[in-house]
Amino acid sequence: MSQELDYLSRGVATGRLSRREFLGRATALGLSATFANSLLAGAGEAQTAPQSGGILKAGLQGGGATDSLDPALPAGAPPITFGRCWGEVLMEVTPDNRIEYRIAEEIAASKDVKTWTLKIRKEIQFHNGKEVTPQDVVATLERHSNKESKSGALGILRGIETIKAHGRDVVITLKEPNVDLPYLMTDYHLIIQPNGGKDDPAAGIGAGPYKVTVNEPGVRHGGEKFKDYWQGDKLGHADQIEIIVVNDATARIAALQGNQVHMINRVEPKVVDLVKQVPGVTIQNVTGRGCYLFNMFCDTAPFDNNDLRMALKLALDREQMLDKILRGYGAIGNDFPVNDAYPLFSADVEQRAFDPDQAKFHYQKSGHSGPILLRTSDVAFPGAVDAAQLYQQSCAQAGITLEVKREPGDGYWTEVWQKQPFYASYWTGRSTQDQMYSSAYLSTAEWNDTHFFNEKFDKLLIEARAERDQDKRTNLYREMAIILRDEGGVIVPFFNQFIDATGPGVKGFVKHPARDMCNGYALAQCWLEA
Q1: Judging by DSSP bridges, how do beta strands 402-406 and 372-376 pair with one another?
Q2: For a designed S-S bond to 478, which of 10, 131, 346, 401 qualifies (C-beta 3.0 to 4.6 A apart)?
Q3: Residue 502 burial (10 A CB sphere; 0-12, 13-18, 19+)
Q4: Which of 439, 452, 477, 413 is nearest to 187 (CA)?
Q5: How many CB atoms within 10 Å of residue 325?
Q6: Following DSSP, what letter does each residue of 164-233 receive, concatenated?
């Protein structure tokens, strides 16, 4: 509840909510009117209205020389965060998991939840001066849902049968019912582009608060305020924004401390207490749906043997890794990428524990011998190299020889992720279980990064999309979680908190459980206090 109240209070301070809206929603959370008023008064004293001007800079980890402005492709924080600056989406999800309308001003479904109608706002401008039209929206969704597409959103859009424009409306007809379609439309890949980006997907022309001025992949990205942005009172306060790619954790902290940047992502848990002591620096941590993990290709030897996969899952000392790597800034994982931050989560799935004897049993049963190579990198997740070394030690207790190879950060997301059969990675999570599973574990998902192909899992996922009874839907997701936990190629040691840090004078930072850096919007929604 405190996170929701913080979001609502900042909404009043930044003009997103009226006083009446704040009071109504605060009392709906169970607060008395008196207490809600006191919070409102406190928020008004603590917050100031957004201030315009200046250059707002972020030092971010996760960028590489092969990054692209094509919204279909980003995997790391710099291109995703930059996309939030120059791009605009149909709708977004708020910190309390509600739908916030953007280019679409409303959405409605047919009774069978197979036909959805989106009303598109008028007079929203692209950076090239053209108005955003329903035809641009149709073309965008067509490009990302095309079966030949390489879009990270392909998995969640495969259920679309047709997309058509009717006046100011866009009508989406699905192959099967899906009650979660509004949340799927919030996917960060779905930046609306002129003609859907079919002409030049990497042009960087969108309808967001900043126009692209600098694009040096793996080095820096920059933008200047777009004077015709449709909601310039809410986003785009700085005159210019700049992202500097700083993959080294120590260098990022030094850049923040030296005022070279105003905010950084991925503060390693082991140094949080030290960073807190830096004058003017604020640690911005939030619990959410993100998880750090080790991926195995289920169709590639030796990981195509489920006994070997089970051995590697049982050989992981999760408690030790949680304590030594996350230092309390996270929670233990259970080999499926869903936790209690998701709606319809089942808390009664048996927790997998470190069991070197059972790990040895399954390892011997697999028939494999010899070393197993795990690739990791500083950019995989904060502490990923140390985590892999701890994993190496716990595997040794089960008689498993784990070799750890430290890969360079530049190129990790193009040369290792989805390319090598066993590697460290992360997911920031998604708004719903359907979106998470459809993005990465559905057989046909473009980002199926464990090569998990399971007909029963797919069938349950399709069934859950159409189920309106919440108890039945919860049970379907529980069954899917157990299948993935016991047969999948994902090892989830822990769920992480997102840990960012802001420097002196940075205002407007709103913690979001979906992703670090205010769900990627930090540069767009923050401002510098004069």
Answers
A1: parallel
A2: 346
A3: buried
A4: 439
A5: 23
A6: EEETTEEEEEESS--TTHHHHTT-TT----GGGGSS-TTS---SSSEEEEEEETTTEEEEEE-TT-TTTT
Q: Tell me the backbone φ, ψ of residue 498, rounded to 5 degrees.
A: -85, 125
**Alpha-carbon distance values, 194 to 119, 147, 206 (Å):** 18, 21, 7
Contact assessment for residue 140 and residue 149, using Cβ atoms and an 8 Å cutoff: no
DSSP tally for the chain: helices H, then strands E = 19, 19
> How large a percentage of the chain has pLDDT more than 70?
91
Q: What are phi and psi of 108, to 5 degrees?
A: -140, 150
Task: With H, G, I as helix, E, B as strand and everything else as coil, classify residue 286.
Answer: strand
Per residue in 376-432, pLDDT (tens digit) is 999 999 999 999 999 999 999 999 999 999 999 989 999 999 999 999 999 998 989
Q: What is the pTM of this model?
A: 0.82
Element (H, E) at 357: helix 356-366
Q: Using an 8 Å Cβ cutoff, are 155 and 450 in contact? A: no
* The two structure tokens encoding residue 68: 């692209």
